[in-house]
Amino acid sequence: MAAAMVPGSSMIDPMHYYRAKRDRERRTVLKTYKILGFISSGTYGRVYKAVLLPSPSSSSTSKSNKSILPSSARAALSIPKDKLPSPTTSTSSNSNTPILDPLNNPELCMRPGDLPAKEGDVFAIKKFKPDKEGDVLTYAGISQSGAREIMLNRELNHRNLTALREVILEDKAIYMVFEYAEHDFLQIIHHHSQTTRTPIPSPTLRRLLHQLLCGVHFLHSNFVLHRDLKPANILVNSAGVVKIGDLGLARLWHKPLAQSGLFGGDKVVVTIWYRAPELILGAKHYTAAVDQWAIGCIFAELLALRPIFKGDEAKMDGKKQLPFQRDQMGKICEVLGPVKADQWPGIVHMPEYKTYLSSGPYPNPNPLPTWYQHRSSSSQGYDLLTRLFEWDPARRLTAREALAHPWFQEEGGVAAKSVFEGSTITYPTRRVTHEDNGDAKMGSLPPSMAHPRLPSSSNFRPASANLTAQQPARKKTRM
Amino acid sequence: MSSSFWSSSHCLHWLTTRPSLLISRQVDLQYCTPKQLYCLNIFFTQLIQKLGKRLLLRQIPIATACVFFKRFYLKNSICETNPYLVLAACVFVAAKVEETPVHIKSVVSEAKVVFNEYNIKLFPAEANKLGEMEFYLLEDLDFHLVIFHPYRALLHITGREPADAGKFPMSRVDEDHMIKKKEVEAKKKKDEESRNSMLNVPSKPSLSPSPNINNNGKDTEEVDEDEKEAKRIRRLMGRGSTEGIGEVDEGVLQISWFILNDTYRTDVHLLYPPYIIAISAIYIAFCLTSMNNSSSNSSTRTRTSSTQVQSLSTSITTNQALGLAAPPSGAAEFLAGFQVNLNVLFACVQDIICLYAIWEGFEPSSIRHQTKNLAGLGEDKEKEKEKEKFGPEQAEALVRKMIESRMIDMGHPNNAGLNQTSKRSAGTTGASASNLDNSSGIGKKRARK
Predict the structure, then answer these.
(1) Which of A424, B26, B110, B119 is deepest in the core (most CB within 10 A)?
(2) Which residue among the candidates A114, A121, A135, A228 is catalytic per the annotation?
(3) Does domain A27-54+109-180 have CATH number 2.60.120.280?
(4) What family classification does the UniProt entry report for this protein (chain A) (predicted)?
């Protein structure tokens, strides 16, 4: 082994040994999971469907006590060898030790905090795009959204959030292993609008919205703003449980703020159709109410099967100035009517208030009541919708208040665990492709059968092409 | 998770015990004394702070970087890594985690400047080396990146910032007031309705549902009666706010804050939950101020006119408005109110005050240094002191020597160093055990010398 030298001295570089040790201990994605196919891609990277392979040690460890785990298994499971058995085992094992099932054995989990799973379980693996300098992979630092997603998903645990099983670092890329969800809101909406051409049954719709609110309430009560709620990001698993995904834009609002508050880090948040009016008007300090507006938009989309405020996004011009989203604001006013002074007294303080006035006049009628009556007869539902569409963020319903809304008590309430209970509709399973996915390593076909590599696209490219036109890509601006 | 420490990775996975802390340092202790290792930690913290300051980071990201660094060395040894590279990576990751990201290239260039000051040549000034270290660091941190710092606990405990700041649109007093008002209104309305129905007048259907969130179906009976006192207290406590609880003056708060800054040179963040550290800091601050102010009484207390600061009088009125017990009046009563385990508290206090003596020896503050010179130590003694002197310069040299010796020991053919172990561990038999045995064997040999 050629010893690497430290610049400026004749010493052996200790990091050489350190890295070798860690590389040896590391689990690899392909030894742990079998890739079943490619699901979607985005600016962040690609998502694959994968199944957990049998643990290389499962046969030998099933009978043996965890303390005499053979060293090969320990190495394969990356249990630190020559260091303390992690400060955590003493605390965390208390709750887990009674379970003797090797599949739930905490020792077989790779790290403290990783989730147990059994052979054959299906996962969605999100691979972050590695940094490249020309054709050579380099390390340029993990992106802010990657760091956020890892940080928040490692801490948050709730029935209505997609659970993160583990994170694996390999070949200069990050792999996040999430629980798999067969459906999502966008796909359910699409199925009803294109295939069955019927509205979503109201008990299903009610439970979808209720579970979404449960998840958002959990996030908000933990000081987390999601900031990118939209149908494509809200998943539903085959057991009919809503799972909120993609915390890449989410952040803690208790953290010390950059010079200009929440606005400082990310100039643009929330996909345009779901963006709250205070964001369109350039608010620098915003609250959890931005997520509530998005939930209102999602509620309306579940009812109408198409986006309620489908504006065109004004692109950034050459300068660094953010354009005013005139068209989006117009679309909102077309449905809700222009903002009246008593509805939102604070609007006069919004940075873009003058631009808003000058880009008027906006049409006066408020067609929302008629719009709603065509789609539902529940007056409580209308009440909930209008309260989520409050112009004034301070008056908009919070997640906690929304959960207590009487609409959720109608038609037998939301006690059923599965959103699909009582519904005869079967939704199609997520489309998984085996075509070339631009990443030879993650292909589900043997390398000889895979197509040659294509340059990776930086645009949003879901596996099912007909959905592409439906969703505008989220715009992110990083530092 | 930001609101619940108890379900956080910090609480569940990263609070350790002193014995396991010692075990994790065994390899390093073969190459230096415990005191030297303690000084090295002061040295590295100093470097993290300097680098953080140069990158214009605030105290919280710097503190997070310090905790990352300490956690990394729970699983690794200084002599088997490049601590300067690790340290820069900690700052880089902490800046991201605390939402004040800095560019990788500025971390590299600023780190170069800071390390030059101390004549440190070990740091590889390349962005991709730092990026690579980031990956390994995240792995060794088990991807647990949310750190609970005692600063927030300190502000809650002293009533400077409610625990739920920003979470609720109104204060507890206002909410209590509003709910009471609504209850009265609802009662009035109900009385009216019942009167109307007695007069056989069909009551108008209510136009909109009551805005009171408690007022759906199940809860209507409860609205009938006045809210039970127990239930009311529970609701108020459920808000989790500390409005009107604490009473600590600005001077004590200030000193506690500075003490917390210093604690990042010690191991307390690996051993105690943040609220214990915060209470320990307040305890020490109380002691210090009572020592200084023993002649004068409370009239010398300074208090800024900041609106955030709650005076005792507003504390009393808040508690009165909520119908809760009066806030504590003295320091002892205040501290006793927390009902924390005294043994744990004093262990933490001890760990914090230990720092100052050793720190003074490592980096003498200029004033004391001068007074020592004035005292005029004998020439021999001066030389002796010079020999024993262990400062940043010696620390830098020690780090180099430790790594060098460790690498030689590991590479020595008689000792099954890491180089060989790496080949063997690919096999099947207990490589981990032999590795540990060997390293402790080296230790014994060195000790005998």
Answers:
(1) B110
(2) A228
(3) no
(4) Belongs to the protein kinase superfamily. CMGC Ser/Thr protein kinase family. CDC2/CDKX subfamily.
Residue A327 is among the residues annotated as catalytic for this protein: no
Per CB-CB distance under 8 Å, the chain B contacts of A9 are 121-122, 400
pLDDT band at B344 (very low <50, low <70, confident <90, very high): very high
Distance to chain B for A18, nearest Cα, Å: 6
In the block, residue with structure tokens 């802390």: B21
The token duo for A163 is 């659970």
Sort out which chain A residues have CB atoms less than 8 A from B19's CB and list them.
Answer: none
Q: How does strand A122-128 pair with strand A173-179?
A: antiparallel
Q: Which residues in A53-172 belong to E strands, given as ranges?
A: 122-128, 131-133, 136-138, 164-170
Residues of chain A with Cβ-Cβ distance to B61 below 8 Å are 256
Tens digits of per-residue pLDDT, B92-107? Answer: 999 999 888 899 999 9
Here the tokens at position A166 are 């583990």
Q: Which CATH superfamily is domain B1-148+364-412 in?
A: Cyclin-like (1.10.472.10)
Question: CATH 3.40.50.2300: does it fit domain A183-408?
Answer: no
The model's pTM is: 0.76
Q: Is A479 in Cβ contact with B80 (below 8 Å)?
A: no
Every domain of chain A with CATH number 1.10.510.10 lies at 183-408
Q: In chain A, which residues fall in CATH 3.30.200.20?
A: 27-54+109-180
Find which of A228-232, A320-324, A450-454, B117-121 is predicted with most confidence, using mean pLDDT: A228-232
Contact at CB, A154 and B101, closer than 8 angstroms: no
Whether the bond between A361 and the residue before it is cis, its omega within 30 degrees of 0, is yes
ipTM of predicted assembly, 2 dp: 0.78
B positions 337-356 inside 8 Å of A (CB)? none
Mutual angle of helices B342-362 and B274-292, in 10-degree steps: 70
Output A195-203 pairs: Cβ under 8 A, ≥24 positions apart.
Answer: A195/A428, A196/A425, A199/A303, A199/A305, A199/A375, A200/A302, A200/A303, A200/A305, A201/A422, A201/A423, A201/A425, A202/A376, A202/A378, A202/A411, A203/A411, A203/A412, A203/A416, A203/A421, A203/A422, A203/A423
Distance from A115 to chain B by nearest Cα, in Å?
13
Residue-wise pLDDT for A397-456, tens only, equals 999 899 999 999 888 778 888 888 888 888 988 888 876 555 666 765 444 444 433 333
Residue B4 contacts A where some CB pair is shorter than 8 Å: yes
